[in-house]
Amino acid sequence: MPYDCFNLEISGGIAHLRFSRPDKFNSFTPAFWRELPTAINDISNNAKARVIVLSAEGKHFTAGMDIAVFMQGGLETPNPNRHTTAEAFRFHVRSLQDTFSALENARQPVLAAIQGGTVGAGVDLVTACDCRYASEDAFFCVQETAIGMTADVGTFPRLAKVIPEGWARQMSYTAERLPAAKAKEIGLVNEVFESHDALISGVMEIAEKIAAHSPLAVTGCKQMINYARDHTTADTLDHIALWNAAMLSTDDIKESYIAKTEKRAPNFNDLQTVKTGL
Predict the structure, then answer these.
(1) Which long-range contacts (CB under 8 A, 24 or more apart) does 213-216 make?
(2) Based on the domain organization, do 230 and 130 belong to the same domain?
(3) Which helix (H) or strand (E) holds 114?
(4) Number of domains composing the chain
(5) What is the pLDDT of residues 221-253, one digit of tens each?
(6) What is the pLDDT of residue 73?
(7) What is the H or E stretch that residue 51 is in?
């Protein structure tokens, strides 16, 4: 399926989704908010890949929210029916939040390869990814504060769980740019690469390592880490025990040992397609 806001290639178990509007700094238009969850859910539900990589063309990863989204959200003119407008706007925001939650809910790990600016809603997006990597010219900015609003599409429930709370507060209160080196120092990104080309090459190498492992084991890791973030240690230990009681694959374990003995790459089964709806 062709998309207006990005290009999608799937090869070798890796789905590479590249934002493709560099002339507009890959801003998030209304079409983007529809297309991204459609693409991610399709890859996830239909097990079309074992890992997802997000990258962008051009100088910047993304300038964040396109102004057209605000206009369609009911902010363009004063409205005497303030309360009903606010209620409708809440549901508009919830739909935008669901777009990035699709990344977090995907069965596969999602890796973000970031160059240049990641501004505003771009921070919401990358914090919903499993891992973030950056080129030396990258920077991050909670721009919403600087334009008179509070970020509402995912920054606050996720950013303070990815980096120290004090830094999440400083980024949010000041709307200052956080450069790549500092982002790595505080844990926002895993690694910084010298150039955009080196970034893509490095992230694809990591994606290949992930794709080589048992998809069931990898999705289990993602499920457990996400669960542990929002639950107690005791609850998470019980959840892990239940998960393995139901889903531990002795076939995958056996294949990994046989492949190692035979000095070859293991051959694991892909995840099965998930049926949605009736």
Answers:
(1) 213/268, 214/249, 214/252, 214/256, 214/266, 214/268, 215/47, 215/50, 215/108, 215/268, 215/269, 215/270, 215/271, 216/247, 216/249, 216/252, 216/268, 216/269, 216/271
(2) no
(3) strand 110-114
(4) 2
(5) 999 999 999 999 999 999 999 999 999 999 999
(6) 52
(7) strand 51-56
